[in-house]
Amino acid sequence: MTAVRPDITPKQAPGTQFPTGFIWGAATASYQIEGAAAEDGRTPSIWDTFSRTPGKVRNGDTGDIAADHYHRYRDDVALMKRLGLKAYRFSVSWSRVQPTGRGPAVERGLDFYRKLVDELLDAGIMPVATLYHWDLPQELEDAGGWPERVTADRFADYAAIVSGALGDRVGMWTTLNEPWCSAYLGYGSGVHAPGRTEPAAALQAAHHLNLAHGRAIEVLRDQLPAAAQTSVTLNLHQVRPLTGSEADADAARRIDAVGNRVFTGPMLRGEYPEDLIADTSHLVDWSKLVRDGDLATISRPVDALGINYYTPTLVSTPVAGADYARSDAHGASDHSPWPGSEHVAFHLAEGKERTAMDWPIDPDGLYNLLMDTHRDHPGLPLMVTENGAAFDDYVSPEGRVEDPERVAYLHGHLDAVQRAVADGADVRGYFLWSLMDNFEWAYGYSKRFGAVYVDYASQRRIPKTSAHWYSDVIRRHALPPAGTV
After folding, report:
1. 175: phi then psi, degrees, rounded to nearest 5
2. Gap between the Cα atoms of 92 and 432, Å rounded
3. Which parts of the chain register pLDDT below 70?
4. What is the DSSP letter of 240?
5. Alpha-carbon torsion 401, 407, 413, 419, what sign?
6. What pLDDT score does 327 carry?
7. Cβ–Cβ contacts within 10 Å for residue 166, how many?
8. CA 12, 16, 18 angle in degrees (round to 5)?
9. Among 34, 119, 141, 178, which one carries the catalytic annotation?
10. What's the distance, CA 403 to chain centroid?
């Protein structure tokens, strides 16, 4: 098979058209859809362990079967083709291809991804491979997980295995998906696997994830054809102060540092921000954590930056005696996912419609995030690699799934992308989250983000109204008038 080589140098077309060459895709993650949790040599990841721990996942749900994509991938790719997708962003299960996180690959595991990629290429769909979407092999967590430096070494070995197997057919690669979640939800607040609540370990994990990214980029550049594209995907927080006070501005600065610049600083500038180090110096000794050569490795150039966006982040410095909700839209916990800034208060924007996740709907947040990133890192191509919403979808008596709220959400956010492009942001693609309903991490199967409805009992796929709407957007290469379904 011949890889579909991405041309991510679009030119702006006139009128309401998106740029020529703009990539239209959808995204998924391995543990959320594949199932087949113990087949063909796959061993437990931290999410297998976490989901089997009582009280960690709603209703005791696991990803053992999920959307059964492992067995139904051919039908799923055929569905993608019918919807007109031009690209599909998937992740590789580390424990499926390298069960212990070290040593040789299991060819049966790699064969699944070889077959998936071939099916995509036959359908004219560009495969976009993500190496890590949170499912660390459990044996590596047993050895200390991401807070241990050696995990970055293991990740480089794993990157070599996967790129060696798929590099002749996959032209676009992402190292990590949302390392903020892996570090802070996994090791800080404990609402994600592995469920640890250790602020210092969360910061150590952040650095080692950065290091893993850099080492993987080195491997990819060494093994892949020159035309291949490399990237990393970050869930950058569009942080806003609640008021114009200096105290609230400082709260926003702190969250921007530990939420955004802890990754963009070393990855894109080759340095950790001084204010981040000052805010967290009581937790870790950065001079010992960051070794000689680390920053040069972490800052290896990438061809694009993936940005995931769902809702903005509104913060303040607490007022004594005031009552603030502990949830910051990432799951309630008695432990903070913001090491060094645990005191910062989070708010839900008033007067906004909300999704089933209770997240305020604010397309301007995506516009501002794209423009801010373009301003801070000029010349770096951007991709919206996740954007979408959960709603309380159901199958009507006629067998349809009507989701006008999701259509409105997508229209507003695609309009924000188009406005950002018109104002100079170099945005080269959009990947809807998610292609299909799936295992939504600690929420289990209680939240539906998909454009395609999955009846988990029968595994029947039903494209929702939003899937047909998105298909029409792709066909038009433009947005229809607002309110058009």
Report:
1. -75, -60
2. 18
3. 1-15, 321-327, 483, 485
4. E
5. positive
6. 60
7. 20
8. 40
9. 178
10. 23
Q: How far apart are CA 336 and CA 255, in angstroms?
A: 12
pLDDT at position 321 is 62
- Residue 428 DSSP code: E
Active site includes 274? no
- Output the six-digit token pair for 116: 């998936």
Q: Crossing angle for the helix pair 107-122 and 150-166, nearest 10 degrees?
A: 50
pLDDT for residue 485: 65
- Yes or no: say if 349 and 312 are a contact pair by the CB < 8 Å rule: yes
Options 34, 119, 141, 386, the catalytic residue: 386
280 CB-contact burial (10 Å; exposed 0-12 / middle 13-18 / buried 19+): buried
User: Which whole-number Å values give the CA distances from 6 to 19, 211, 252, in the listed order?
Assistant: 14, 26, 37
Res 458: pLDDT: 98
> What confidence tens digit (pLDDT) does each residue in 197-238 have?
999 999 999 999 999 999 999 999 999 999 999 999 999 999
405, 352 contact by CB (below 8 A): no
With a CB cutoff of 8 Å and minimum separation 6, the contacts of 32 are: 63, 66, 67, 434, 438, 439, 440, 441
Q: Please tell me the distance from the alpha carbon of residue 201 to that of residue 219, in angstroms, as a whole number.
A: 26
* pTM over 0.85, yes/no: yes
Contact 67, 436 (CB under 8 A): yes
Q: Are 145 and 193 in contact (CB under 8 A)?
A: no
pLDDT for residue 332 = 84
What's the confidence (pLDDT) of residue 482? 78
Instruction: Reduce the DSSP state of residue 119 to 3 states and report it.
Output: helix
* Angle, in degrees to the nearest 10, between helices 199-223 and 150-166: 30
The torsion region of residue 59 among left (phi > 0), alpha (psi -120 to 50) and beta comes to left
* Dihedral sign, Cα of residue 151, residue 157, residue 161, residue 162: positive
3-class state of residue 315 by DSSP? strand
Give the three-state DSSP class for 231.
strand
Task: Please indicate whether residue 386 is annotated as part of the active site.
Answer: yes
Exposure of 347 by Cβ count < 10 A (0-12 exposed, 13-18 middle, 19+ buried)?
middle
